[in-house]
Amino acid sequence: MSTDVHAHCIPPEVLKTLENAPDRFGIEIVQDGDRRRVVVAGRVSTGPLRDDLVDVDRRLTAMDAAGVDVQMISCFVDLTAYALDAASGARFARMYNEGLAGLAAEHPDRFLPLCTVPLKAPSASAAELRFAVGELGMAGVEIAATVDGAELDDRDLDPFWEAAAELRCLVLIHPYNPLAGRNVKRYFLDNAVGRPAETSIAVGHMVMGGVFERYPDLQVCVVHGGGFLPYQAGRLDRAYHAKPGLAATNLSRPPSEWLKNLYYDTVTHSPEVLAFLVEFAGIEHVLLGSDYPFEMGDDDPVATVQAIPGLTASDRDLILDGNVQRLLAGIRR
């Protein structure tokens, strides 16, 4: 059995709703040459709307080819839509979540949905998360690494973190606007370097800002193998000891201890790197991921896990599915 925790999806019904009712959410689909994009709140444009984000049959065929039994389907991260006002964001999140839940209900053996929330409105996000997990049966939530410019350790977000910790559901953290303000478009560095860098900054703020100290029951998975954090954990610990007035004000333990409590997906494109990640975080903290359907994803994630050196068959089974099943069993619905 294999469960992919990192797979993006736009349910066909969601796309149809956005096309037919743009004024309802403050989200407009526009034509950009031969491609379509989404404009959020009149100012934030998404990446192209790829057909394979929407095409369910194509998704199932790709899953079968890769040996993936179940996908945790989550929002196309460009559509987290944190630029919306609170009311529009709440309406949009509910519509998207019902679309994801409906698609999963049509294929209950293949899809398990993660919700989206209007994170710029933390109390509304907490309420939507409780509804999505408790009423729609969703496994947790995907959030972007920044909230319309705010960092994830912002104390205004505490109502959301409190709800996520209370539910013990999965929180998948995904980069959205890599290294804003830097010219990283050349050489595809905005994706190759910028996305893991943005994730590292986001989770670094959470660790150093004491989010995990305040909410130790959080079940957080960091995509793309955790960005750069697992491989620079010693540097964070050095900052904690060398500059305690700056780096230790919210912590009672070194940062690496909190990093080892997190979960990490396998999208590193290197079995050798994954071997280090297993050694760093422990075999029970690594989860199968693909980043379907994007070009920087892993087209054959099960084979990647099979290629990690030094693991037993039971170790591989934990990464492929066992760790996810343990997390799902711990959700407090």
Characterise the protein shown here.
The chain has helices at residues 12-20, 22-25, 51-54, 56-66, 86-106, 122-134, 158-167, 189-208, 211-214, 233-242, 244-247, 255-259, 271-281, 301-306, 313-329, and strands spanning 3-9, 27-32, 35-40, 44-45, 70-75, 111-113, 140-144, 170-174, 219-222, 263-265, 286-287. The protein has 15 helices and eleven strands. It has a five-stranded parallel beta sheet. It has 333 residues and is α/β, with parallel strands linked by helices. Helix content is 45%, strand content 15%. The longest helix is centred in the N-terminal third of the chain and has 21 residues, at 86-106. It has a single domain (3-10, 54-329), classed as Metal-dependent hydrolases (TIM Barrel). Strand 2 (27-32) and strand 3 (35-40) form a beta hairpin.
Main sheet properties:
5 strands, parallel
Q: Would you state the CATH class?
A: Alpha Beta
Radius of gyration: 19 Å
CATH topology tier name: TIM Barrel
CATH architecture assignment name = Alpha-Beta Barrel
Give the total of domains: 1
Q: Approximately how much helix is present in the residues?
A: 40-55%
- The unreliable regions are none
